[in-house]
């Protein structure tokens, strides 16, 4: 009797196991490639046949993007492959993220340094050189100015000393 009970229990489990349907999971990103400018964000869109399942993300290229909960933030120029994987399944999809510099991004001048002689005699012409930082500033044009044009004038960095005195040249 005990053998029949064990047999029936195994037969019952076999029937239940064979009746359990294995679900086909379909997962894919909506796009194959996305282009972002530095500072922009993009929420990765995907199709998943069972929305109760979770997606975990990984990516190549540290420092190019930040990725949290499927939201990509472009940090620096470059390319990254993001892989999405259905948790507990061996199902993946990939998307290429291309990060480009911001268009029309103004890079402001942080400092200007002036080099050249700071003394001379009446009639001298002294050439000053201005260095603009950062080197990739959008507008590197230097405007020169004399604090007293009766003592000295300046044009394009060339100072002409007109009479004795003290003058400040600014760029």
What features would you describe in this structure?
- This protein has 1 helix and 16 strands.
- It is mostly beta strands and 171 residues long.
- A 4-stranded mixed beta sheet has the order 2-9-8-5, with no helix packed on it. The chain has a 3-stranded antiparallel beta sheet with strand order 3-7-6, with no helix packed on it. Strands 11-15-14 form a 3-stranded antiparallel beta sheet, with no helix packed on it.
- A hairpin with a 2-residue loop joins strand 14 (152-155) and strand 15 (158-161).
- It starts with a helix and ends with a strand.
**Quaternary form:** single chain
Helical content (DSSP H or I, runs of 4+) = 10-25%
Through-space gap between termini: 105 Å
**Rounded radius of gyration (Å):** 35 Å
Q: Describe the strand arrangement of the main beta sheet, using strand numbers.
A: 2-9-8-5
pLDDT below 50 for ≥5 consecutive residues: which ranges? Answer: 15-22
Order of helices and strands: HEEEEEEEEEEEEEEEE
Mean pLDDT, all residues:
85
| Structural class computed from helices and strand pairing | mainly beta
Count of DSSP-assigned helices: 1
Residue fraction in strands: 35-45%
Strand elements, count = 16
Shape: rod-shaped
Most strands sheet: 4 strands, mixed
């Amino acid at each position: 009797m005990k053998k029949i009970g064990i047999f029936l229990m195994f037969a019952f489990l076999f029937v239940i196991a064979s009746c359990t349907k294995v679900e086909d999971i379909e997962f894919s990103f909506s796009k194959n490639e996305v282009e972002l400018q530095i500072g922009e964000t993009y929420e990765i869109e995907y199709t998943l046949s069972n929305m109760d399942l979770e997606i975990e993300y990984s990516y190549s290229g540290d420092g190019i993007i930040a990725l949290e909960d499927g939201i990509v933030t472009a940090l620096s120029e470059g390319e990254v492959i993001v892989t999405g994987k259905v948790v507990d399944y061996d199902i993946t999809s990939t998307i290429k993220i291309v990060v480009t510099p911001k268009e029309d991004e103004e890079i402001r001048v942080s400092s200007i340094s002036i080099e050249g002689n700071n003394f001379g005699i009446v009639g001298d012409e002294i050439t000053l050189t201005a260095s603009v930082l950062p080197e990739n500033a959008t507008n590197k044009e230097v405007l020169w100015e004399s604090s007293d044009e009766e003592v000295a004038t300046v044009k394009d960095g060339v100072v002409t000393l007109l009479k004795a005195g003290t003058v400040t040249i600014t760029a």
